[in-house]
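Tokens for chain A. Residues wanted.
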């Protein structure tokens, strides 16, 4: 019964991200600015060097925790391509989860971590959270999921 809900959630998150990335905006003339190496690599630019990434686990089951506690999550990944990996953006499906991305590019063959902190206050019950990662990869958008069962201390045995 949970599988259709997971698939539906992933579909909605992916569709929203794709729509957001593909919005057509009117052309605006802007004075050129000096570019740094990282600024040259933007999602969707035609001359962008693309790479690939492999996540050790894209779904984490974190078990049980008590309501009011903070949970630190880490998704480990490896740059499996031949270009520098740039994590452009990470977002969470809920304000109770604060994701962090590596600020420095990840060299081919090296590993990195997407970190997140989940605040369980007011979140009693089963929680499933989605973290969306945008990177300079062929797939552009990657979805990471974690779930945790938050126990209300009033009802815990």
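Reply:
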């Amino acid at each position: 019964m949970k599988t259709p809900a997971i698939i539906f959630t992933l579909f909605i998150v992916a569709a929203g991200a794709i729509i957001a990335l593909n919005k057509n905006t009117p052309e605006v003339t802007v004075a050129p600015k000096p570019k740094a190496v990282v600024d040259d690599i933007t999602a969707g630019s035609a001359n962008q060097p693309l790479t690939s990434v492999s996540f050790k686990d894209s779904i984490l089951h974190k078990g049980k925790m008590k309501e009011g506690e903070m949970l630190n999550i880490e998704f480990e990944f490896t740059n499996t391509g031949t270009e520098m990996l740039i994590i452009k953006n990470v977002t969470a499906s809920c304000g109770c989860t604060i994701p962090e991305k590596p600020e420095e590019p990840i060299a081919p063959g090296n590993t990195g971590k997407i970190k997140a902190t989940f605040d369980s206050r007011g979140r009693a019950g089963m929680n499933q959270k989605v973290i969306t990662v945008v990177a300079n990869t062929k797939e552009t958008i990657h979805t990471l999921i974690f779930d945790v069962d938050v126990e209300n201390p009033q009802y815990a045995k």
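The helical segments are 2-21, 37-40. The two ends are 27 Å apart (CA to CA).
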